[in-house]
Input
Amino acid sequence: MPTRLIVGMSGATGAIYGIRLLEVLRDLGVESHLVMSQAAEKNIILETNRRVEDVKALATVVYPFEDISAAISSGSFITAGMVVAPCSIRTLSGIANSYNENLLVRAADVTLKERRRLVLLARETPLHAGHLRLMMQVTEMGGIILPPMPAFYHHPQTIDDIIAQTVGKVLDMFGIEHHLFRRWSGGEAAVGSVRGRLVKGKGEAPFFTRLPWVREQFLAKIGFDPYPGTVNLQLDEAGARLMQELARGEGISIDPPDPQFCQAKCLKVSIQGLPGALLLPLVDDYYEGIVELMAPVSVKEKLGVKEGDWVSFSLTEVLDLGAGKVKMPVRQRMPGHVEG
Output
């Protein structure tokens, strides 16, 4: 994984892209070197509820916009590359023409001359021929134009879901592993994305998930040996509606050998890229807008989330949405089989 990236923020709309990128790099332990224009600082105030000082605090090192003598102005300062998020047309023009009038453009020019990866989140619409020529020039010089164009196959529920997908694409350009969005996996990919806040459970899950018959049935029917414990999510409104439909549908049955335990059904899910299962105990008073997720690993540790954080998951079975209903097919899994 790259250990040092330069992040530039220019005055185009979309300051949240740069902010979210800085947050993710910090959480992943990647050293970030930030330079932002005065226009970028104004847009942070206009477009977000963040203070400029708080955004700068997300970076490992911050450089003045006019400091052409800064470390990132030299090719001898080794980095994995640079991202400009967002990238204004003015900044794009400066990079395309090697017009190094400020540190942001100079750092990008150095990145290109050293044959390192430069990714520009160009923000403008519509585009005229001059804009397109600038993008072509940068591409011919080795840069990557990555406009923040959202995908919708993963059923984004919030603006943050849309932002995360683009930030994830940026990380992909540098080979940085992440779980910011669900990846496409074919024509029968996940249907229905659900989002909820991580909440504290009742503390009974570690006992339940360690029971031999639970582990055996999960391995045989779901395809993995569950990690001791579950993840509890308080769903948003859209997720709550979908769960009400799923509670009335079918699923993969988990059958207890002892009547002291209730029967349950499971649905195959992807938890921000992690394989998992949605557990639905078959009791009348269970569903109150909170669901339990199980996985072969600790979801909290793997995703780096805590109570109050948003977590999303997607159904990975084929859904029958006819007549307004959601029906999950019951399918047995072979032991040891895990679908990605």
About this structure: Residues 159-173 form the longest helix (15 residues). The CA atoms of residues 276 and 295 lie 4 Å apart.
